TrEMBL record:
Domain Response regulatory: 7-123
Residue ranges of every copy of the HTH luxR-type domain listed in the record: 153-218
PANTHER family named among the record's database cross-references: TRANSCRIPTIONAL REGULATORY PROTEIN NARL-RELATED (PTHR43214:SF24), TWO-COMPONENT RESPONSE REGULATOR (PTHR43214)
Cited CDD domains: LuxR_C_like (cd06170), REC_NarL-like (cd17535)
Species in which this protein is naturally found: Dactylosporangium salmoneum
Keyword Protein biosynthesis attached: no
A Pfam family of this chain: Response_reg
Transcription is among the record's keywords: yes
Keywords assigned: DNA-binding, Phosphoprotein, Transcription, Transcription regulation
4-aspartylphosphate: modified positions: 58
Name by which UniProt lists this protein: Response regulator transcription factor
InterPro entries: CheY-like_superfamily, NreC/VraR/RcsB-like_REC, Sig_transdc_resp-reg_receiver, Tscrpt_reg_LuxR_C, WalR-like
Gene3D superfamilies in alphabetical order: 3.40.50.2300
Amino acid sequence: MSTEPVRVLLVDDQSLFREALAVLLGVRTDIVVVGEAGNGDEALRRAAELRPDVVLMDLRMPVLDGIAATRRLRVEQPGVRVIALTTFDDDEDVFAALRAGAVGYLLKDVSSARLVEAVLGAARDESVLQPSVAAKIVARFAQLPEADAPPRPQPLVVPLSDRELDVLRLVADGRTNREIATELFLAEGTVKNHVTNVLAKLNARDRTQAALRARALGLL
């Protein structure tokens, strides 16, 4: 496993907020802030130069907004993971950001511990969602008209264990592996193994898709 720190690019039109993030993340040895940008257009240029692992992307910015920048970045650098970090959690922003390719969606009032966990999780290809955002996704899926809903998944070949169901419910609430470990009194490595098993059994590529398929199967 690589021991290199996660390379992060900060994108926000408020310089004071960028500076605060840089200070917050700068105390970590497993994260390094490689650069900053004040709008989406600058973010694309800086990302091409710096090749970050993770981009913390504001959504409402001048010149080029965060959603358009995320969409282009995912095409130009598919390996980069984008986390939307914004003040707003209205449905339009949430679903537009996720459709554009963001792997996470957090609000700016997020705790420092959760932000750090989100950055490290994104670098491991995990999806990290604010609990209120995860709830919006599941609620939107539940409200789809029957004609528009995806075909109901086939029953699981291998059912989830009781503990895997516990983990799945917390995943659907937008909890990180560390938070799940604390909630269930488990080691974080054990939680990671449970999440891996849950994704495999649900044939889901990430945590968001797992929550949606679990909802379709009536597991949530």
